[in-house]
Amino acid sequence: MRLIVSLLIAMFLKKIVLANALVNENCEKLDSEIRITKDEYSETGKLFRTCSDEIQVSKCEGYCDSQVQPSIVTSTGFTKECSCCREEFLEERTVYLNNCYDSNGKQFSLLDNSNMAIKIREPTNCKCIKCGFL
């Protein structure tokens, strides 16, 4: 009986290894365009201006290999290790929002208020990392 169970587990593990060998990781940094809108308030709390623009940013996208293995320790009989495509490092970058409007919706024409500099953080490199809370 033990021999049969051992053979079944070995066959199951071989199927998992073969299935994982067919899946390739494809985690990469891609460019994307997003719209950013930012409000600026005066010291008294009144809306001074709203700025927005389409900004080119980087993001991590793709898929990563995950593994399932039999386990006699867990209640389900299996352990699963998941990998997610995530940023390895984040880098801060200054971007400019060039469409600025006052609280009445009138576009600013003065150079001082016609754009707003904001800082964003985006990935410098992407890789497959063990899934979980960061």
Automatic annotation (TrEMBL):
The organism's place on the tree of life at top rank: Eukaryota
InterPro entries per UniProt: Bursicon_suB, Cystine-knot_cytokine
Signal peptide region: 1-19
One term under GO cellular component: bursicon neuropeptide hormone complex
Keywords of the record: Signal
GO annotation terms (biological process): G protein-coupled receptor signaling pathway
PANTHER family registered for this protein in UniProt: PARTNER OF BURSICON
Protein name, UniProt field: Partner of bursicon
Organism (species): Nasonia vitripennis (Parasitic wasp)
